[in-house]
């Protein structure tokens, strides 16, 4: 595993996600490229922390969703470095520092919202065929279910599940 130290968070990388005492940042855009990076910020002593590089995503992504479920980080949809919308769902294993593409969305999505509900991923809205659609990915049997749409079209919003 590559280890890289940053004195401050890289300003061009986006999408903060928290797991235990670490924050994970996936993808993002720099002036010259769409990034494939996964960075972990871990508090090491008091309030002082350290940035570490983890395994790269299979492709650069921006405007995607990310969520943690069952000790894995899921990255959903987004745009690739050519600006094309993606249908892929990639899963990062914290224990092995590896990515795998595990599913294909029912339609391309970017600027969508995602969250974990029980043993499922819920993906809602975003730019796709219908900005109000909601899909549920059942982790155990790896299948998509389409559920009732949101009352209104929505993209670029935050999402939280309890």
SSE layout:
Blueprint: E1 16-19, E2 22-26, E3 38-45, E4 48-53, E5 65-69, E6 72-76, E7 86-93, E8 98-109, E9 113-117, E10 120-124, E11 134-138, E12 143-147
Antiparallel strand pairs: 1-2, 2-3, 3-4, 5-6, 6-7, 7-8, 9-10, 10-11, 11-12
Organism: Eumeta variegata (Bagworm moth)
Protein name: Kelch-like protein 3
InterPro entries: Kelch-typ_b-propeller, Kelch_1
What structural keywords apply?
Neuraminidase, mainly beta, four-stranded antiparallel beta sheet, kelch repeat, Kelch-like protein 3, 162 residues, Kelch-typ_b-propeller
Report on this model:
- The structure is a single chain.
- The chain is mostly beta strands and 162 residues long.
- It has one domain (16-147): Neuraminidase (6 Propeller).
- 0% of the residues lie in helices and 45% in strands.
- It is built from no helices and twelve strands.
- The protein has strands at residues 16-19, 22-26, 38-45, 48-53, 65-69, 72-76, 86-93, 98-109, 113-117, 120-124, 134-138, 143-147.
- The model is unreliable at 1-19 (pLDDT under 50).
- This is Kelch-like protein 3.
- It comes from Eumeta variegata.
- Keywords: Kelch repeat, Repeat.
- InterPro entries: Kelch-typ_b-propeller (IPR015915), Kelch_1 (IPR006652).
Give the spatial strand order of the biggest sheet.
1-2-3-4
Supply Rg.
16 Å
CATH 4th-level superfamily: Kelch-type beta propeller
Q: Count of DSSP E strands? A: 12
Q: Between the first and last Cα atoms, what is the distance in angstroms?
A: 34 Å
Query: What is the string of helix and strand elements?
Result: EEEEEEEEEEEE
- Return the domain count: 1
Oligomer: single chain
Largest sheet: 4 strands, antiparallel
Q: Total number of helical segments?
A: 0
Helix fraction, binned, reads under 10%
How confident overall, as mean pLDDT? Answer: 82
Would you tell me which CATH topology applies? Neuraminidase
Helix/strand/pairing category: mainly beta
CATH architecture: 6 Propeller
Strand content of the residues, in percent?
over 45%
Globally, the shape reads: globular
Organism: Eumeta variegata
Pfam family, one: Kelch_1
InterPro entries: Kelch-typ_b-propeller, Kelch_1
Keywords: Kelch repeat, Repeat
